[in-house]
Amino acid sequence: MRLSRLGKKPLISHSLSVIAQQADKCRLRNIDPFGSHQASEFNTCCRTSTQFPLAEFIETENASRSLDGSIEQQIRVFNGTHIDWPNTRGWDILRGLQNDGGFNQAVEVVDAMGKQEIMVYSVVFSQLLQQCIKEKNLVAGRRVHSLIVGSGCEADYLLGSSLVHMFAVCGSLSEAKQVFCKLLKRNVISWTALIEAYAKSGHTEQAIQVYYELEKLNSELDGHVFVAVLKACSSISTLEHAKHINARIIERGLEFNVYVGSSLINIYAKWGSLDEAYTVFDRLSKGNVVTWSALISGCAENGHGRDALKLFRRMEQEGIEPNEVTFICTLKACSSLAALEQGKHVHFQIVQKGFESNLVIGNSLIDMYSKSGSLDDALIMFDRMPDLDTISWSAILGGYAKHNNYESALHVFESMQKVNVKPNGITYLSLLSACSHVGLFDEGCRHFKCMIESHSVWPTLEHYNAVVDILGRSGYLDEAEDLMETFPFGPNHVGWVSVLDACRFNGDVLRGKRCFDNVVSLDGRSALGYVLMSRIYSQAGLWEDYKKMQELRKCANLHKKPAKAYIEVDNYVHEFIVDDDSHPQAHEIYGKLNGLDMKMREVGYSRQPFIESLLDEEKDEAYCGHSEKLAIAFGLISTAEGTTIRVAKNLRVCTDCHNAVKLISKIELREIIVTDAYRVHHFKDGVCCCKDEYT
């Protein structure tokens, strides 16, 4: 691994320090930290006392530097002289805790202040909640909530809205609803928080229903409400709701609001309604880089990467100067297509515009290169960055994880700590993913334990799902099922799909039936559960059960997400689907495939037995990886001998195609890189870097 330069420690300002500095500045100017329009309501005192005692040692000039001891020592500041709050060094007490990494200690101090009847401004509680949201720390959030209740501030609707938002982000919808129901006064802010709570928890229909309730109240709906409810329109069944909301937006005169319009564009692009997305785009100023970036982002994030790249080129032709957001969205499109050459072209423009030193863009470049199968370029970019933050380190670690290289991922993890860069939730999620890919059960459990004990990173739903995946892939199906049933966040669709998939490659039919029932009960509109259960039956030779499952799926009118494969040749991205004959060179492509099939059979290749046993009309679905074979065949006939073939696929590579591509790499003497939805496969000389741990 090449990490020639150790990065600097990122500048992370503790939220309490930020608000303390803000309050100090505002006090000197005799203004409120949040502005006069919110001062009377938000920056309220939650205790009637106007004074608090400080320790004698705070009289010295070095008092703030003395706040590095135990929590007991820090609490000792609350004895001695009475001095007005917050016009003294009370802010310094909380600010000093940042040197101890003292978020938990800050909570202790506020707790101690409450017990000694020292007034606590709600602005302090707000900042503590923001830190809980940042860390997705549900345990700390509950503790702050109890402090708020004890202080008598729970009825503050602004604090209440923050509590609703915090519980939603931390994965506890039930507590978010409880707080909302207890609010004595509800305004558009608190309603918006509840809509966001439902949306973040995946309860999109409920989020939309809450919006309709708010609409009936004839409240002054603002842009924040519309942005929140549009985020809830995440399934195709909500598209009509989005159109209704669009009409209300026009009624409210917000159709020209760039941010509301951007949310609409994103929703329409997500569900392939590009005509509607362009209609909203045309309604806004075409010369506005924000709307261009919104449309590019909507395409890039929702499976329309080719359209995103076309828009970027069109934007250039029309003379619109791209900004940082435009470049980030375009790099995301390149990542989704493994379009390395176009990614390099965008990188060149970034250098020309002077944006390469931008930390977020640098992180996006690392991500683009690693997902395009070029870890060497990702490492070069990592070494060139003048500043590195946790996301930079997490990006390169995640790259190794996707490339099935746990040892290097672990080395990055250890290296970042040596230069005092603290890992965050994303870092640990990538590390757990690396363990899952190579079946490292003990290491995965150890990292999950250390994230809490060593770094106070509180696990989110995604971390628990990653552990479930590790358990399933390691053959611990009982433990995986037990963990799903005892989740602190309640049951979730992704986790049960993971256990169902584990039943597939462990051949556990009975457990698979139980998991299937849970998957369908949580999301009856998803075809994935039916597809996985069908494969379990087919692999077990239970063909009658297989046919019944297929009939159930068809009766429910559920369709599997179509498999697509992409390949970049001569700076143009070509798209292929199963049995695609629309390409201008289709005849040559199928001719190449037939020739390869004959050569592979000569060296012992045969299709999986369960595929050959299916009915003819069912083979295409089971043989879903055919799209990447078409892309690879096109690459072989369109590029010079020895050229690396890079293909992106929107779904997981199937077993049959994985076996076939290994042989093709050996027959054609080519390195073939296939990036699927889960990892990057490097095929060379008949071997894949995943060591066949691809299921």
From TrEMBL:
Domain DYW: start-end pairs: 613-693
Presence of the UniProt keyword Repeat in the record: yes
GO molecular function, one term: zinc ion binding
Short name of any one Pfam family annotated for the protein: PPR_2
Keywords per UniProt: Repeat
Residue stretches of each PPR repeat: 187-221, 288-322, 358-388, 389-423
GO biological process, one term: RNA modification
Name of protein: DYW domain-containing protein
Organism: Adiantum capillus-veneris
